[in-house]
Design goal:
single chain; mainly alpha; 0% strand; peptidoglycan-anchor; transmembrane; cell wall; LPXTG-motif cell wall-anchored protein; signal
Length: 43
Amino acid sequence: MNHESKLPQTGESNNSSIRNAGILTTLVSSILALFGFKKKNKN
């Protein structure tokens, strides 16, 4: 396996779980924001 093209991996499983948590947080925040804007526009 050629690791030269990749960035150095320091705790790959930790980094991926943190990245997934960040993606989930971003998705939830954007969905909540969309619903919030829809509710504001109705009133």
